[in-house]
Design a protein that fits this description.
The protein has a single domain, classed as L,D-transpeptidase catalytic domain-like, CATH 2.40.440. 29% of the residues lie in helices and 22% in strands. The protein contains five helices and nine strands. The strands form two sheets. Strands 3-2-1-9-6-7-8 form a seven-stranded mixed sheet, sandwiched between helices. It has a two-stranded antiparallel sheet with strand order 4-5. A hairpin with a 2-residue loop joins strand 4 and strand 5. The longest helix is centred in the N-terminal third of the chain and has 26 residues. The C terminus is likely disordered.
Length: 226
């Protein structure tokens, strides 16, 4: 069997499983938002590609949708084999990615050291460790020029008080990280433990046209988002 055939079959199998899982979740909990279709498709394609390469050791897919504001839950952890949505939680974006007038919105993304920006694209999770932020997770960026400096930038998943329920209730949004996908301390240990050691994380953002409008706007109003 060719690699392209294997890739297509893997994508078809995973797509069918996750499509059913999301439909079941929506039926069981109508108020539980599912990932938007384009993000899900991109994430599934990334998962299938990495699985075909034999690099997936923990078969779960984490999706982050930076097109949504930080006041909304925009991280999902999906488990294809059991057709379950395991987590749907809040996640922060980088300080360098935020619109100064609308800090809950991420409008810039990057890979540069010192940029404080969130990176988009496909990551493979590494090992968990206990560091300055507590129980954290290393991330390996797989896309050259887009996120491959994640380790050099110390981009990791970690808990942060500025993602906590108390902070959200006080401000109506999350605080911002130095580029890391920071989580609510109440949820971080369970998520990190579940996705550690060889699972796929895919981060998507708003369409490029929307980001371009945000850059060129007079900032007299919020950016236009689909």
């Amino acid at each position: 069997m060719s690699r392209s055939t294997s890739h297509a079959r893997a994508l078809g199998r995973i797509g069918a499983l996750l499509g059913l899982a999301l439909a079941q979740a929506a039926h069981a909990a109508p108020r539980e938002a599912a990932p938007r279709g384009a993000l899900l498709a991109e994430g599934l394609a990334a998962f299938a590609r990495i699985e075909t390469e034999g690099r997936v050791k923990n078969p779960v897919l984490t999706l982050i949708d930076y097109a949504l504001p930080s006041s909304e839950r925009r991280l999902w952890v999906l488990e294809p084999a059991t057709r379950r949505i395991l987590f749907h939680e809040y996640v922060a974006h980088g300080r360098g990615s935020a619109d100064p007038d609308h800090p809950e919105r991420a409008v810039r993304f990057g890979n540069g050291v010192g940029s404080l920006r969130s990176s988009l694209g496909t990551f493979l999770t590494g090992e968990a460790y206990t560091g300055m932020h507590g129980f954290s997770l290393r991330l390996l960026g797989l896309e050259p020029g887009r996120n491959d400096r994640a380790e050099e930038r110390a981009i990791v998943m970690h808990p942060a008080d500025y993602v906590s329920r108390a902070f959200r209730l006080q401000t109506g949004r999350l605080g911002r990280s130095f580029g890391c996908p920071a989580l609510d301390p109440a949820a971080a240990p369970r998520i990190i433990e579940r996705i550690r050691s060889g699972s796929v994380l895919y981060a998507g953002g708003p369409p490029a046209s929307s980001r371009a409008r945000a850059f060129s706007s007079s900032r007299s109003s919020a950016p236009s988002w689909p």
